[in-house]
Design a protein that fits this description.
Strand order of the largest sheet: 6-5-4-3-7
Strand content: 5-15%
Number of helices: 16
Largest sheet: 5 strands, antiparallel
Structural class: alpha+beta
Number of strands: 7
Helix content: 40-55%
Length: 355
Amino acid sequence: MAATAQTGDPDPKDKLVVETIRRLPSYDLATAPEKVRLALDRYLTQSRGSEEYFATIRQFRIAKEAPALLELSCGESPEPVRAQAASLALSLTGAERFLEAWKALPDDAGILVLEALPASGADAVAAHGTLLEEPATEPAARRVSLRSLGASPSGQERILSVVASGRLDPALRLSAAEILLRSPYAGIAEAAAEHLELPQSAESEPLPPLEQLARERGDADRGQVVFARLCSSCHRIGEDGIEFGPALTTVGEKLAREAILEAILDPGAAISFGYEGLTVTLKDGRQSLGFVVSETETELTLSLPGGLSESFPLGEIAGREPLPVSLMPANLQAAMSRRELTDLVEYLAARRGGD
């Protein structure tokens, strides 16, 4: 599903018909002759993505064009065209029907639609807000909706409402705090401070925004010392460290500096595949916590903190429960000064193949 704006000119006769009816006040398409409706359909197909296309749909409220608009909004057209298409589709259908159609899209197309849809206007704020607070929404979609809502006062108020009600995905708390606690709009930051806080370093000072931190440069050699002190008990780089969490030998190839920072400050934001935590409860009451290494017809093997592993006969397991948060400790930055955090990011960003 990748529609683009049409580049050919509409048929002159069809264009004349459309221009004529657009000049007539209160023209009713429902009672228009079939020749007029067919000319309009052809014109819309041939002019898709143009200003005239959008203006015609907007004037006559042509609801049947909503699927084409949705398709256009996740295609390869320029961003302003995609934004107009998404906003107009929402205007024609309302938030509820728009989301019904959105949920039928493939995941990648759905993300493109959300990225194109600015959170301006009540319907757009409602659509993004619904996706932000729905547990069934994919994490990537929730993150896009959070970012879109954060760009307007009414959107930030909706984020604040979701936070205050306890419906915000814990993995998004840092991103929400970055938006709300640094908000320039009256009352937002003060209200958000009752529910959120910005990460602090060991100096008990709030850290600057992620974008600013990512631009700071540190010392990779000093960062290696920080890694050995705080990270090597769970992560390995080359032959150094313990293999419990994901190996970080080539993390600099996989993640940008800002993403590395976010992984440290908000480990639950993006849990790596295969590293979802699991609590296993045995019939004798004992519990173990770790990652699933393997499961056969007879036993389950977990990787445990410290680099150990343990196998449990399936017949002895009373229950298992996925952890909703990352096993990586939260607030790790509180054990570092701001300089040490910058040094650690410098060291990790330099980890590439062959380093």
